[in-house]
Amino acid sequence: MGERIPKVSVIIPTYKRPHYLREALESLANQTFKDFEALVVDDGTPGNENQELCKRYPNVSYQKIENSGSPIVPRNIGLRAAKGSYIAFLDDDDLWLEDKLQRQVEILDKHSDYGLVHAYCLIIDEHGKETGEITGQLHAANKHGYVFDKMVGNFTVMLSSPLIRRELIDRAGFFNEDMPAAGEDVEFFIRLAFITKFWFINEPLLKYRVHSSGISNQNFNYVYLPWYLFKVVSGFYKRGMLERSRFVPLRNKLVRNQINAATNWQGFGIALGKCFSISSVFFVMRGVPRRLISKTVELLGLRALFSR
Prior knowledge:
By secondary structure, the chain is of the alpha/beta class. It folds into two domains: 8-209, Spore Coat Polysaccharide Biosynthesis Protein SpsA, Chain A (Alpha-Beta Complex); 220-306, no CATH class. 40% of the residues lie in helices and 19% in strands. The chain contains twelve helices and nine strands. Strands 1, 2, 3, 4, 5, 6, 7, 8 and 9 form a nine-stranded mixed β-sheet that branches. A hairpin with a 5-residue loop joins β6 and β7. α6 crosses α7, α7 (184-195) packs parallel to α8 and α9 runs antiparallel to α10.
């Protein structure tokens, strides 16, 4: 018999969180859809606890690499090894509801003009308890169909949420390893949104964990994200794939987002430099002078005074 080819490949990067990884693997094992492989790529966790854990679950492979410092490289290694025609990502601290894959596979099977299907998330705390909050539902009305122009600078796809056609990832490219580990998933999904339609299920299909050791927790490197998004947008424009009438509003939005991304004076300096790289006359763009004043007031700690 030939090598088994699963329909879905699930890529799970992990590092030093075996207790969370076990819960993630349990949520995967409980899926009603069973035709999948899981590829756990360990970013250099000391010891063999993660490896021994993965051995307990069928269709789960384990690979340890030298520590890269972020989940970007492990995700790309998983993509290169994946055999499935559909790809999903599961962060090691998140959990899937049991019908997550089943519902998404059915949609992609029936709707060939859609390349990605996603949903929103229930928020859980570090102990796995639901907080009563959700994430990923904001802008729900704009998340279904061809969403590129609405998506840039406004919203993204929760990383553990989507199921994606593999051939579209090959067209759009893997995660950008030149980026810092802050918003690389946003940049990835923007590239996908340009070439395919997204199907949004306006229901929760997973649980997103918020805890103090999360990578996105107060990450300074998010100040660079609008610049990387602009590089994607301008790349499409320079190659004649994006009309100027679409490019200019997106550029202006990303300039405003770049200013907003600064959380301290160092970040503000970086943001201004990136804005100048986007356009040497950025400061006269509509809405930008007010945004610059507002950010300066915020960083000076004077917002409360002005709001009286």
